[in-house]
Specification:
2 domains; mainly alpha; flat
Length: about 100
C-alpha cells in the first residue's frame, strides 16, 4: 500500500491531468447533438493515433525484460490501429450516403 501511495505522490500532476481531461471530454461530448454524434465520433476515432504513438513510446522506454509492459503496449498499438482504421471506414461509408446517384 505504501508503494501505491508513494507512486501517486510522485505522479500527482499526471493524475490531475488525467482527471481533468476526463471531465473536459465528458463536457465536450455531452454537448454534441445526436445528429452530429456519428460523424463526430468517426472523425474523433482518428485522433486515437495518439494512443498508437503513446504505446510505441511506452514500448521503447520499457525494459526488454518487462514482458507485461511490452505485451500491453503491443495490444494498445493493435487496438489503436483498429480504432483509427474503423473511424476512417465509418467516415467513408457516411460520405458515400451524401454522393449523388448517377442518372440512368
Amino acid at each position: 500500500m505504501e508503494e501505491v501511495v508513494s507512486y501517486l505522490g510522485q505522479h500527482i500532476d499526471k493524475l490531475f491531468i488525467l482527471i481533468l481531461s476526463i471531465f473536459v471530454g465528458i463536457e465536450v461530448i455531452g454537448k454534441v447533438p445526436s445528429v452530429l454524434h456519428t460523424p463526430l465520433m468517426s472523425g474523433a476515432n482518428a485522433i486515437h493515433g495518439v494512443v498508437i504513438i503513446g504505446a510505441i513510446i511506452v514500448m521503447l522506454e520499457a525494459d526488454s525484460s518487462n514482458v507485461l509492459t511490452l505485451i500491453l503496449g503491443f495490444i494498445a498499438v493493435i487496438l489503436g490501429t483498429l480504432n483509427v482504421v474503423g473511424g476512417f471506414v465509418v467516415t467513408d461509408r457516411m460520405l458515400e450516403l451524401f454522393k449523388k446517384k448517377p442518372k440512368k
